[in-house]
Amino acid sequence: MTETTTERRAGRPRSERAERAIVEATLDLLAAESGVAGVTIEAVASRAGVGKATIYRRWPNKEALIVHALATVKAPLPEPSGGSVREDLLELALAMGAERKRKYAKCFWNVVGSAEKHPTLYARYRQDVIEPRRDVIRAVLARGVRGGELRADLDLEVGVTMLVGSLSTRVPGEALPDGYAETVVDTLIRGIGAPGS
Amino acid sequence: MTETTTERRAGRPRSERAERAIVEATLDLLAAESGVAGVTIEAVASRAGVGKATIYRRWPNKEALIVHALATVKAPLPEPSGGSVREDLLELALAMGAERKRKYAKCFWNVVGSAEKHPTLYARYRQDVIEPRRDVIRAVLARGVRGGELRADLDLEVGVTMLVGSLSTRVPGEALPDGYAETVVDTLIRGIGAPGS
């Protein structure tokens, strides 16, 4: 990602256009019903209108390309403003909720669904795309524990998973109902808050 | 399902064998990378070694067949023993956790992933397979509200979704860590429990 940004800043329009076309072609193929199976360097090249060599110059293999493409759609969560834990979690919850309608949401289901068949791709996706997002939530919870807002014995992974799970296990593509994120965060805060706080 | 059970009880081994072969072929195809797209009556018939007419005698279309096949793998959750809300939720959570390793878990990801492309199938899957399971959890929560164990203003849907989401948003196919279900249920109970109870 860093290299890409540098390239863009340096202003290399043709190269940038090619990269965008490649990333979009990858996401289009990934969102199609055949999912990961439908993404081959050949299919991406043909769809993006570039040669295979152009792809291999930037990405060593299909996995690297897919993970890069997913990262362009699912960026790390925005750093919350640093109010109370409740305020920060709510900001993050609303940000996650807002992502649900995005065009490429289906890509992620397809990658998760093929985790067993493509364990390396899935592991890399977790590490490069999902974990940086969870880190943002983890940091809010850790700050809450340090500051005494949250229980001293809080298992951060449980807190992160409960927040993410409560927001993501709904009908795919449907917007969250009004007030849903607030209720989830309030419930979670009661569950993980320091006793009597 | 009822008809099938009756048929089985009446002992019609050839018909039963055919039905099993059809259901298994459907699940095999559904678990494959092409997911829902790969399930056609033709492909199922060929894989199960039966004629297409045999399939159409039991299921009017591909959707009905897929939903029936999914229901054979994901039965309604077992009725909990009716102890405290915590005990009942923990029983349900452990039952859900135990399903994670099942051979056909991937079928469900594929159906959810294709929800946008196959909205009728997805809606029917929700109604026939998922909702009966959520009903079991809903009933436990409703009993808790009536009995005063849970908050009077509890939104049952939020409670159900938080429990299911916390257990399902993990690396697919991986067993839940020891003690995870307990921690989730305890956290949730603190979040939804009646104040001071």
Automatic annotation (TrEMBL), chains A, B:
Keywords on record: DNA-binding, Transcription, Transcription regulation
Gene Ontology molecular functions: DNA-binding transcription factor activity; transcription cis-regulatory region binding
PROSITE patterns recorded: HTH_TETR_1, HTH_TETR_2
HTH tetR-type domain residues: 16-77
InterPro entries, alphabetized: DNA-bd_HTH_TetR-type_CS, Homeodomain-like_sf, HTH-type_TetR-like_transc_reg, HTH_TetR, Tet_transcr_reg_TetR-rel_C_sf, TetR_C
Pfam families cross-referenced by the UniProt entry: TetR_C_11, TetR_N
DNA-binding span(s): 40-59
The keyword Transcription regulation belongs to this UniProt entry's keyword annotation: yes
Name of the protein: TetR family transcriptional regulator
Annotated source species: Actinomadura litoris
